[in-house]
Amino acid sequence: MSDRLTQIADAAVHVVATRGMRGLTHRAVDAQAGLPQGSTSAYFRTRKALIEALVRRLAEQDTAEVTDLVDVTDLDALAKGSAQVLDSWMTTGRERTLARYACLLEATHHPELRTILTHGAQSRDMARTMLERAGVPDAERQGRTLVAFIDGLLFDRLVGAGALNAPQPGTPESITDLTTAIRTALRAIFGH
Amino acid sequence: MSDRLTQIADAAVHVVATRGMRGLTHRAVDAQAGLPQGSTSAYFRTRKALIEALVRRLAEQDTAEVTDLVDVTDLDALAKGSAQVLDSWMTTGRERTLARYACLLEATHHPELRTILTHGAQSRDMARTMLERAGVPDAERQGRTLVAFIDGLLFDRLVGAGALNAPQPGTPESITDLTTAIRTALRAIFGH
DNA sequence: GACTCCCTTCTACACCTGTAGAAGCTACTC
DNA sequence: GAGTAGCTTCTACAGGTGTAGAAGGGAGTC
Prior knowledge:
Two copies of one chain form a homodimer. Chain A is 70% helix and 0% strand. Chain A has ten helices and no strands. Chain A has helices at 3-19, 26-33, 39-43, 47-64, 75-90, 94-107, 121-133, 139-158, 162-165, 172-190. Chain A is elongated and about 55 Å long. The first copy, chain A, starts with a helix and ends with a helix. The relative contact order of chain A is 0.12.
């Protein structure tokens, strides 16, 4: 992806995160990217193309973020590591996460955006692998359940009621809080 | 709420669910409600007022849906009951659920919509009560975690990857699938 | 230098949206 | 029947938005 294109896609992510899908207009992206009016429109003639670029950008950044928390023997460490990742998605990665949720919702009525549904495929694969190694039966399904649980935590903290109740993301308290919650989820699946 | 107002609010819910927040325009709601152009605009002069009405309507219908699944002694039954509720939110209540997600996301950058964050307050209260009765320590927080997990399942199935993988909502398979997943969550919290 | 190609910027325009106010209608009061 | 209050429908309009195409500019080739 050329520089300009990435620049525009990133600006689009920012716009969607801060103003919602409704705020995503060619001119808003121009302004956000600090480019002259018409630039976004020139690169992505249609709005659909712009959204697709944005979705691709999100997916791209996702896969770039490869984590390796695969030590099944120490579930406490695993919980802590996951909590840190989750917390980063609520702080430095906040906009990306919000934009992703917006796109996921959009994909509900725009099937061509379904690529974004591969989001978390990595996490799911990792979960499955771990569970298999640990000899948990029905690892595939259990892995998906685990990821759904943990995603539920993220959604709650970021856009749900947890945004009011839970500790401020980025703080040690937040990490601790997330760690215990994730540890609970792991206990559910692994049984200990 | 008068008839017309409810009619408009309901149409607005449908529009948001099917076309997203971006599709929510006065005229679209008119069309959806089968009312002459200008009606929605007359009742809700500003778009903000319309959204607020829509959020209120969602909250209203939520509280109308009082469930009583409070038999802590039988976690299997509890799981099954919850699964049925969850499944109904993905079938008959699908649009409402989607509209709620859209509004939650909107509330992220529009604090005045935060009322919607009280969504699930009932579920959380119920969870807390149950956990207290069962003698689980830190019932408040654990309850919130439990609800976040279960909401995660819902989100996954409805707008996440589960929309592709999980069994078709409304089928017995879906209920079974949800039941085991919820049972897992309960096991995590209750320890058995 | 003239030409060409490609990237970038500008301009145009039909259509959509939010919002306001005027006009019309209905039912009820005197 | 005249009047009136309140709901409902229509119309207007300023601005925003999606999209297309024209204009500009700068590097590379002959």
